[in-house]
Structures are given as structure tokens and as C-alpha cells.
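Quick one, T. Sequence first:
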Amino acid sequence: MNPVEIEVAVSELAAQPFDKEEFPFAFLRAFGNKETTIRRLRSGESNKSDVGGVLQTNNIHIAVAQFGEVAKALDALRESRATAKAKARFILATDGIHFEAEDLESDDPPIVCEFKNFPDYFGFFLPLAGITTVKQVRDSSFDIRATSRLNRLYVELLKDNPDWGTTELRHEMNHFMARLIFCFFAEDTGIFSRARLFTDTVEQMSVHDASNTHEVISEIFRAMNTKDSNRIEAKLPRWADAFPYVNGGLFSGNVAVPKFSKIARSYLLHIGNLDWTKINPDIFGSMIQAVADDEERGALGMHYTSVPNILKVLNPLFLDDLRAQLEMAGDNPRMLLNLRKRLSKIRVFDPACGSGNFLVIAYKQMREIESIVNERRGELERESDIPLTNFRGIELRDFSAEIARLALIIAEYQCDVLYRGPTLALADFLPLSSDNWIICGNALRLDWLSVCPPTGTSVKFHGDNPTGTPLDQTEVDFENEGGETYICGNPPYLGSKWQTDEQKTDLKSVFNSRGIAWKSLDYVAGWFMKAADYGVSANAISAFVSTNSICQGLQVPLLWPAIFNTGHHIIFAHTSFKWTNLASHNAGVTVVIVGIGSKSRQVQRLFSLGDDGSVIERQVDYINAYLVPGRVNSVEQARSPVSKVSPMLFGNMPRDGGAFVLNGEERENVIREFPDIVRFIRPYLGSEQMIQGKPRWCIWIDDNDVDYANEHPYLKTVLERVKKFRLESAASSTRDFAARPHRFVQIAGTAKGHSLVVAKVSSERRPYLPVDLLEGNVIVSDLLFALYDAPLWNMALIASRLHLVWIATLCGKLKTDFRYSNTIGWNTFPVPELTEKNKDDLTRCVQDILLAREAHFPATIADLYDPASMPTDLRTAHERNDEVLERIYIGRRFRNDTERLEKLFELYAKMTASKKPTKKVKREVEK
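C-alpha cells:
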């Protein structure tokens, strides 16, 4: 269950008559517990409470108290031995009137409230559903509750007004929802003349069966679109005349309202009963944008970008610099004035703004700095010099663009209340400006310089083609000239396999004229390229969140040379980390943050996560395209290893139409009938067989056995099948081998003693790459790479954390799996000169790994390297291998993967500096 679904279930539970016997189980059910779990608790099988309550191990201990004894019951739960033994995180006691709860693992204050109000605190209990997220989200119960209710209203209205869900009226529907949100906010924050003005008016003036609700709301909207001077002429009803003139584009134009059912009217009034002073525009927009999106509604409430994650972009982009200037200014009036002037001219531009999270956070952070400036200058009540219209955005979806603008309006009002006081804030708030500075359009087709011009104040929209130009949108001028421009955001990622035809055309429009093979690029690459183009003509710095794939594998030599050719550098970056959302047990997508600018800063800032999860910042001279210190911006494929390691070759490819390959049953049947050919049947392993432990065999005929095979009754039929398949092939290279049907088409090698093999494609979940030692008689398929008869210490390199991070960085991914390459991954892997003792030590490490595996026979590599259940002795053997190898590199363990990569790139640069460039070899393409 996601948070919105949980909120609905909890609210419904609070609204039902209290059942002391059923409440504990209903409460657990509301947080996603399955009926089998409930049955086991109800029967006592898994309920170990020693106070007559319900105890769920590792989760919660619940007691229903006698009336007036809730606090006493909570004390009993806290002191219960069963609570401690079961490691319950929460304790909860209620008598149906009062409600108290406590989180035993945090410093958060306990909940003490009336029973009917406990849904207000449902975010407190989200860990019960496996949702562990940042505190700001867990505490923002209001935003989730509001989203839930708005979603129910939206769905109910479309049910009774299906035409409002059509393409023709969808914009009107979305605009209607934005108007409602404003009304709810305005009536609770003093913007309207009295509290609950909108909700009470709808409740009093619309009949109970809701037949005229749409008419009442339409009149209210008409009032807010009518200036005071025109009110007599407009003939507004007296009850509607109480609403102020708002307009600002929010209430202009069509004031039609969808018809309400009795249920929809009830939902509307419930929404009005929420306390909208608690709205948090930082995250509300992200949640509410899903209300109007059919595809996203199933994940409603999970679309959330945390403030700490946004600040990972904004702080190094420009906020840290502003704070440093503030600190340097101290109480100096002139320096403070200069900072305020600088703040007033800054332009923040998000060309994929969604519902405005980045813009809202940037605005609020800048207002906070400005307030300190004003405080130090003794000008606390001064009107802000930071124009809201300097925060520009482009968004493809009209409702998200509408919500972004509304979120900024709400943020401005909240900042005015906070820093200037409610009276001054209210005096300046209405009427709203009609400026529409959030552009609805396709960011990859629009000219960014026209949306957010680097100089001057006038704005003129231009699209790269007619379909990309936004229509009927007011051209909003900037108020201040000559400032800096900061471009930021979290654009859509979308790998090439998931892009629509329209999105592919978008990328083509950005990259095709540059001669770049854009079809392999992620969609987000278009934003980086457009930002670099913008920076050629502007004093701008850009930073985007992106999947880490644009800094790995094939995309690096495609994208980054084009960006660097514009004169841009990577001026700061945050290496890979998980960008999580509100989904239960959400692992998040792995992202990077990359900041680029044409004017290189004195030092570049590189952020990474330590093994303990802490953020490490380093100041370096240069950050390359792999987000590693050093000037190696592209690692070329190599025909042979740059280090003194054994060559890694392809496996063997039959191209036989399956004629050579035997499963276990087929092998037994053949040997039973033809025992004389057992010598021709050899184990045959590919990636799946090696990792999953699935046996397979093949027919292997050497050249000197061809005559025997042609005379043998079984082998002869195999050769005939192979020959027929090859003759019918569309590939001439395969047809050429029809004359030699006894052998595989591609034979890279066979082993005399043993083979070290590594899978071409393997899951990124595993902590180490799948590598194995095979006996010499095993035929290695083309889905494996092999080191034939190589010294065992080579396996220590492949099985190391060092090699995994090198492969992950250079080879890229196939979907989300590691894609191994011998020419780019193994042949380029830099290894220091190894002494004989180094090789002996590494050989012992490999033996220990193999012995640990053997101890768990018949567990497969897939079983052994499952990160959730990897055996301790095997993990210890790998840790020992990593330690021995890393001490060879730097005399100690590396602190994190960033440090590992930095050393590898440094060593690679030294090892290749004196070598002449070799002819590029064609990368092996997975068949």
C-alpha cells in the first residue's frame, strides 16, 4: 500500500463505531497487513502480548484500555517484557475516545490526541507498512491526506461528467481543480474575509442532493473574476459578493463547473474541513500532479522529491555561494545591500519543472537569505526584492504547469507571512498577477534563450518547430536585468528502449545536426545538451538529476564530447545514490547529479557517499565524464590488456539451430543408445547455466574425427541438421560454414586444464560479478567470456569490488543488468605490477572463495550471491580478497567506490600515456 491508500483506510477506520475487540486488527489491516497475518494474530499463534493486547513482532504492541486509562495502558506496554523481546517499534493504547502512541526507536514526541483525530498522525506509523523515508515526508500527513481527498473528488466528478475527461475539456477540469485548491488555501489563511468562507458557502447555498452545487461554485468563481468596480453591473448574488477579486488568470475565462453528485459534494466538504494552513508547497505539487494523470494515479502519493535531495542540486549550484557571501558580509550594510541586489537579479530556470518543486525550494531558500539581510539592515518589514517571475519553468503537462505556478504563489504568500507578518502579506497578495511565467510546452523543442533570456527583461517565445511553440500564453518580462541564470531540475530519464516515437524525434532535433548517434542516448541527455547550448550565450550554470547511465558505458563518448566542445566543464557532481520515493519498500532509482558551466570554478566539488552512508565532499582540479577526478574523459576499447593479465576471449558460438545442444534427458537417451560416442558429448555452459546451475551438454567434434562422425548413425544426422540450418541462413558467414557442419562457427578457444569464465550479462543486485572456475573439458558458450588456462589469481581481479565498479562505469547496462565487455572492461582494467607474492596471496584468496562456495554445495551462484542471503563465510572470503587486492593498489582499503574509480583512472592514464592509439575494435553486440 502507498501512503494515500493507507490514509484512506485509517480515516475510514476512525469514522467507524469503535469496536474494542476488532480495532487492533483493523488498525494493522489499514497498514497493509494480509489476512493470513491477521488470522495468525487473532488466533494467538503469532500474538505474544503479555498485557492482553495484540503484539506484532518487530512492529507494534497495541492495547485497548478501559475508559480513562489510556496513559496507564501505554505505560504497561512500554514496561512489557514482551514488547522488548519482540522488538516492537511502536506502542499504542486507546479507549475509543482517547488515543496515545509512541515510537520507541526515535526521539519523536509521543502522540496524544482524541481518537477521531488519530488519522492526522498516520504518517507517524508509515514504517508499519515498510515505508521508511525522510522525516519531512513522514510528518507531512496533511499533504498526503489532501491529495487523497482531491483524488477521490476528481475520480467521482469524472464518473458523473465523463465529457470533462476528454481531450477537449481536460484542461478545463484541471484548471477547475487548481481553482479549488486556491479556495481551500485562501479560506484557511486569512486571504478571504473569514475562515471557511468557501466551504461554508457551498454547504449552505447548495442543496443536499447536490443538484445546484456546480451553479453555486460557478457564481463564486465569477465573483473572484469580477473587480470591485464592476460588481454592481455583474449582479452577483449577495452571498457570492463576499468573495474578493482574485483573477490573476486563475479565475478568468470560462467559469463552468462540472456537475456534482451527492457523494462528490460530500468529498468537497470533507476537503474543506482539512486545515490548509499546513499545506507544504515543497511537496504538495509533486503529489497532486498525479491526480490529473491517468497513468500516474495508480502510484498516487508516491511521486515525491525530498527537500534534501533537491538541495543536493541547488546548494552547490548557487545557494552555497550566496550563503558564503552572506557570511562574509556580516553586518556590513553595503555588502548586505550588494547581496540583496544580487538576489533580486538571479534567474532560476527549470526546463522540466513538473509541479515546481525545484523552483519553490529555490525561492524559499533565497527568501530566507534575504530575510537575514533585511534583519541585519534593520528592514524587517521590507517588501521582498526577489520577483516570483524570475523563477521560470517549462512543463509538458498543463495541469502540472498550473500547479507549479500555484505552488509558487502559495510559497510567496507563506514567505511574506513568515518574514513580514500576516497583515503586510495579505495587503500585497490580492489581486494576483496575471503573469504566466510557467510555460506549458516541449522543453526539447523550445528555444530556452527566448523563455529565459540571459540579458534584458523582455521575453519572446520561440519553438524549434510549430508544434513545440506554446500558444496563448502571456509573455512575462523579467523585472531586473543583468543577473546570473541557474538552470536546474529533474528531467525525465527514459532509456532508449522506453522512449516513444515522439521522444526519439525530440532527441533527433537536439543531436542530429551534430553527427551524434543519438538513438542510444537516454532522454535526459537532451536537457544536458540544451543547457550547454544555452550556456554558450549566457552567464549560466546548469545542474540536473539524471540516471547514472549517461556517465557510464557507451553514452559517455556519445554525449560528453559534444558538451565539452561547447566550452563547458563539469563543475560539480554527486556520484551515484538512490533517489527514493514514498512507495513501500522502495529501492529507488540510482541517479547522479551533474553541474556544468562554461566558466570553470577555481576548484570543482565532487560529492559521494561513504560506505556508512555519509556524504563526502572533495575539492578536485577536474571532474571527468565518468564523474571521477582526472582528465580521462573517455576510455577506448583495447584489443589486448593494458595490464599484465591473461587474455580474455569470447566463448564458442555453434550457429547450429540447436542440433549440437542436449539437455540432460536427451544426453542420457543418446548415451544409452550409442554409448560409443560419449567422448563427443561435453558439458556446455552459458551465463544462465553458470549462474543458475542448470546443466547442459553439446556435441563437440574435432577435425580429426570428421570421418568417424560422417559414418556414425547418430552423429551423421546431427551434421545433416546443422548443414541444412546453415544453408538456409540469411547470413553469408553462416552459409559459408555449411561445408564444415562438424564444428562450431566461432571457436575462440578451449582449455587444457581449466577455464575462468565471467557472464556477459548479470544482475546488478549481486555484490560481485559472477565468475567461476570450470574444468578443461567444459565448452564455454558465446554468452560467457573465458580466460583459458589462466593463472588462478586472475579470478581474484574479476571477483573484486574494484573490478565491479570499473565494469559498472565503463561497460554500461543491458536494461538494468551489468553488461560485461572484454575489450572495454577487462582489457582496459588497470592492474599494478604484481610480485610473485602478490600473485600467491591473490591465488589463496580465490581458493578460499571456491572453498566457501563448495561448503554450500549444491547452492548455485545465484543462491550464493543473493545479497539478502549471501553466506557469511563466502562474504568474508570476498572481503579478504578485496582487502588483499586494494592493499596492492594503495596500501589500505578504499573508503568508497569514488576513491576506487579515481585510483583506477589515475593508473589507467599512466599506463596508456605512452601507448599509441590503436584502431578501435567493434564492440561485441549481444545476440
